[in-house]
Amino acid sequence: MAVKFLSEEWATTMTDALNSSEDFQKAAAGQSAKLQQVVTDTPDGGEAKYYFELDGGKAQVAVGELADAEATISQNYETAVAITKSELNAQNAFMQGKLKISGNMMKLMQLQGVFNAMPKAASDVEVEY
User: Fold this and answer.
1) CATH code, domain carrying 111
2) Which of 33, 49, 22 is nearest to 110 (CA)?
3) What's the pTM?
């Protein structure tokens, strides 16, 4: 059953998918992160906020704001969908100005292995865009 992109159900499903992936667990071992995501121009005309938290190799994706985020990543809905579907690489999106980052850029660089493991870990999640 498909889950609606950026919904509470999507966040819970993504958390479960990441935490049950052996590859993701290996990449995330010993890593920690608190990242805020802001998606503008959503289909309802507003913006959606969710966060990704990594602690002790366990991931949490949740809808809402994270008060002490180390970095904030902003993009429009179209870019967020393309990245989530692996149609657009996040680094390319950044270079093209489609993805904006504020905060600790070094933290994001340290998490490349984690980010690279995410698409495969979430590949079985059916998402409705």
Assistant:
1) 3.30.1050.10
2) 33
3) 0.94
The amino acid that residue 60 corresponds to is Q
In this predicted structure, what is the pLDDT of residue 61? 98
Q: Where are the beta strands (DSSP E) in the chain?
A: 3-4, 33-40, 48-55, 58-63, 71-76, 99-103, 127-128
User: Where is 95: in which H helix or E strand?
Assistant: helix 90-95
List the structure tokens of 84: 């989530």
Contacts of 94 (CB under 8 A, 6+ apart): 101
Instruction: Write out the two tokens for 12.
Output: 């819970």
pLDDT tens, 43-79?
999 999 999 999 988 999 999 999 999 999 999 999 9
DSSP 12: H
Measured distance CA(89)–CA(74) in Å, rounded:
15
Domain that holds residue 92: 3-128
Q: What total number of domains does the chain contain?
A: 1
Token pair for 49: 């906020």
Task: For residues 113 and 26, give the distance between their C-alpha atoms in angstroms, rounded to a whole number.
Answer: 9
Query: pLDDT at residue 1 above 90?
Result: no
Residue 68 DSSP symbol: T
